[in-house]
Design brief:
alpha/beta; Rossmann fold; homotetramer; about 30% strand; Quinone Oxidoreductase, Chain A, domain 1; 2 domains; 6-stranded parallel beta sheet
Chain lengths: ~375, ~375, ~375, ~375
């Protein structure tokens, strides 16, 4: 049992405070870690506002340490096959396996029965604390420490890697590419302009898609610069919906969770199109689909795939793409970190800065 | 140019009559065929009622010969690599390729641009005429003539084969099977109790699923017998929706095209579940999906796939399964043909007999 | 501990006798089974002759009960989710999982580390005994008892199902089918004319291949009749190698384990061809491959895949295909059982009848 | 018809000279290109030495312009959907499609019948000439001109991309990864230490493999530095074969085309291992495989896949990885270009500098 300072909530009731908590020794842990940066996302804010009913405290605790996006320094670690040593930087895996067939294969992101835990969200303390203990089996090493300033983006980026794995699998049901085997004339639309949206759009570019990010209002200069650097187009679809959707959509990725918006763009999808549902917004109002919409999905062989979380392999992939983007796009990429806060500044959990891409806490 | 008796409509206006039409010589045809049986489905009735706006007459014609489900006798045929000879029975392929990358690979069912034609539906005369000419490249031989009485089911069955191909591809995004590699405890639900629904359910059984067919009213003895023979359960979900959906749904197949019904069952899907949309009903009223529904699809890694038509390879597969089912289930399977009509009895296009599974025309 | 009569060997030394053995209670078993038929294959004969060094007795035993091919009657069984009841017939699974990632997913056929057991072969008693106990999790029910006379073919057939799964996966690296999406002009060659060869050839026909089985000597009438019934060609390649291989080979399946023969046919494979290695013959002499052979494999994008054993799902598939073949091919298929012996006639383990396809023991 | 200076051979007789050739106008070309760098590989040297019998002059020519590895400057270009403009740099595609089903889908690398052409090799003039005309459909744009010094590596790298596509497909036949979904403890061995070997090894690292490159002699400092930078181990297997192969091999990639060496390492492959055959050496002597080798491949579910050339999509992928490697590994990567020659220095086609990784010609 040890007492540490941590950013705490009481799930699913909500609230947030920076204070002390007594944490029991973590079974089977062979590494001591200190967070360097932890990131804040909509899930954290949802837990704090008390609107995510699936969140819950760890068994035997009356509060939950927040935080699932992090990059940590290794203070101490036992022998391990991952070549991780004290002084290295690592990203801990958020979701921990249960005992279903997917979990046993290291694919707790595809858990078959829901019996898994997520750090900082469902029944397991998160990473927003002075230090914590974990097992090296769940630590992903940051091979190139020169990307430390952006490595906290690994967690949101790993979701993108998994979603593209899903895309790769489901798009094989037909020939998705053009007659030169490429995607140069295929159009990927990403709904949203937050950090996940940008990370998705960057990956669309890696696949060679013509890539568009979308919002119903203009975006600021910083976002436009990053889009420019990567050859991503931005459209304010409140103005030019018909024009921007001319030519149709081959890959549609939603980060909004907003049915009406999703369906509006879905009705512009091309034959064999793939729609990845990633964003969630449990309170979003309903929007109807009618017989002609079902008909559209059927006649065009359209695939719609929900995608949540990611496997450990996707953390490794995420780190490699972050590494590339950090080198190739330089400051334009690093500028995705739009605000750095101290652990005490807990008001960042209840307000979203206007130009936020990613707000992080420096420990 | 030759004058033949045919069942005619004027697409997309509708109407139906058995009468004479002058047909131009068909380019590139090397086979003369006479239909033995042609089947009637919802698409035919939709065209006749004038409710399918995508239907159209062949270029230069003011009417359209109906009919896409058929088994035909070969009257005359040129040399061909398919070992088809005069006197053989064949099923002609419905959809003919355009020049997109999928069509060029023989996958016009996955046509990328919509530039294909469908016999009896879109811009190409169908098979409900005394005789017609076609090319051997689009004829699938019935190897075992002892199944002639049910071979007209090849066309609807080939859709099932394609949909299961889609299922096989998209379900690979996670481990779909149980920890013994089988589907014995996985549950497939098929919405509908028409011919397509039964063919889907029979195929679910081949995969080893616990299989349920669903309607909102009881079904007659003949249908129950076929279900029994194949180990398929029937449920009248207007009565026991909660009970029947307990345990969840792993594979949900819709043949109704009715959004409200589809969504009701979709909300009972298990993790990694797959929903195949096959049925279409352009006039079905809208039903809403809200934020929590999107959330459900995301968190559970659910995949929804529209599936239309099928490739030539699926006709071959369909014939092999029909062959198996004809031998193994015997009369229970043959009784899927619930009514045999003459070409003159065109009223069958505007009424659906109460106990119909499949109505056919004998030529 | 119970004493039963069994067919025994001392692995890997060899020998065979029908006699008594004391068997310890089998942990976790909830079913009592009596074999109806058990099949004999090359592996059994190899163990008896002492030439299979990987075979070994179960821990704590000085002998091994033989037998991995079987169909059994259920004498007694606990409650189970497989709807298996006393009086039913079942096929027990041969290979039992270790704890590698493939075994945990029910794919012990793809065991990653070799820590599995095989009934009657490696460290686990086989099925050739008056009765035995097993767990329902490893029993596959014979749904249709009318195929009891051929259900003992399930075990060899399940290997075919797995090999075709492998083919389906690896052949996706290019478009394998023709421009009509079918395999009607693709050529499958199966080396060998034993039971496995015939079962492979029957499955090639299900896929639509032009199918050839091959041996270096003529085969008898019974085999020719079965080949005929299924549209399989036989060639004595000692006579017409050049002629029969004209046109090339798209899918080559070996059941001989004989390198020289395999390579001879491999050099005739078409672009994107797939070679399945299934047969094993540890004593077969070496045959060389030179630089031009490697070149051929590279330039033609050829894939060679070893395939051993099968998963539980393949037992289910095997039973369904056996069911179809039993109904459709009737006696021609049933005649694959070429000899029925009593347990006492153990000389059948040391001699192979001239016209043998499958010899079985009736219990 | 225009006369240009070019590096010429007379295929398949061989020889090399820098001189003038009259080239007919190229049909359908809409772009004029000047090479900046062209690379030299074993194929070029094989053609020059007259040892590649499959090489041939274009129809109507008595000589062949050499060169398939290149990066070119666009002098003039018509309107095109690829955003290529005069002044841009591009890599032209080597292999041009025939009319088989794979070629029609843009996969001439998987050509089903051999009816394709390769620039500088089989029936089509190569890129080693002052300027040439081509169609924009076969030009891949270098988006980031800051990698111009290494962009000539695109052509050899695209082969690596295709081989990994093959690996991705065939390795799906079992669970290839460990129980954490990663490859951190999986071992990739690359036979050879030339440019292709290094590019393969770099890609193995991207997948997370423990990666080893192998030769039967030591390698120089420059090569060791590049290996170090990327975390690749080198082993001189003439010394420590047993030690280095302890732990087995999960992915084996051959760039040597030498059967004896390939088989020696193949016998150390782990369960579910994949062997990619890429290197060719038509004159390499034969080495035997015997029954126990076949047994090994079967029992371990090993897959062996020949892989040649690549599709246009792989050129795009290659450029993105080269871009990453150029930024991340900096000079260590750029030092793969070990020698720069003028077009007149044609002796480079008949000798291989000792420390060569890649020799290029500057135009």
């Amino acid at each position: 049992m040890a007492q540490v300072n941590a950013i705490l909530t009481d799930a699913p009731k909500g609230g947030v405070r920076y204070g002390k908590i007594d944490i029991r020794d973590e079974e089977g842990a062979n590494a001591k870690l200190e967070p360097v940066y932890t990131g804040i996302c909509g899930t954290d804010r949802g837990i704090v506002s008390g609107s995510l009913q699936f969140a819950y405290n760890p068994q035997g605790y009356s509060s939950l340490v927040l935080g699932h996006e992090s990059v940590c320094k290794v203070i101490d670690i036992g022998e391990n096959p991952y070549h991780i040593r004290p002084g290295d930087y690592v990203v801990p895996v958020v979701r921990r396996p249960g005992d279903c067939v997917n979990c046993l294969a290291g694919r707790q992101d595809n858990c078959s029965d829901g019996n898994k835990h997520e750090a900082g969200i469902t029944g397991m303390h998160g990473f927003m604390r002075e230090y914590f203990y974990d097992h090296s089996d769940y630590l992903v090493k940051v091979k190139d420490p020169s990307i430390l300033d952006v490595a906290v983006l690994t967690e949101p980026t790993k979701n993108v890697m998994k979603a593209f794995e899903v895309f790769s699998v489901v798009s094989k049901r037909a020939i998705f590419h053009n007659r030169h085997s490429t995607l140069t004339d295929k159009r990927a639309f990403v709904i949203g302009t937050g950090s996940e949206a940008f990370l998705y759009a960057l990956m669309c570019r890696e696949y060679g898609f013509e890539t568009v990010i979308l919002n119903r209002h203009p975006i600021d200069e910083r976002k436009l610069s990053l889009a420019d650097a990567a050859g991503i187009e931005f459209h304010d679809y409140s103005k030019d919906f018909d024009q921007v959707t001319q030519g149709g959509i081959d890959l549609l990725i939603d980060t909004s969770g907003h049915p009406e918006t999703i369906f509006r763009f879905m009705r512009k999808m091309n034959y064999n199109g793939v729609l990845i549902l990633f964003g969630t917004n449990g309170k979003a109002p309903g929007a109807p689909l009618d017989g002609s919409d079902i008909d559209y999905i059927v006649e065009r062989n359209i695939t719609i795939a929900g995608s949540v979380d990611a496997a450990q392999v996707h953390y490794y992939q995420a780190l490699e793409y972050i590494r590339k983007w950090r080198y190739v796009y330089g400051k334009a990429f690093a500028s995705m970190i739009t605000g750095v806060y101290s652990p005490e500044e807990t008001d960042i959990f209840s307000r979203k800065p206007a130009e936020e891409i990613k707000s992080v806490i420096k420990w």
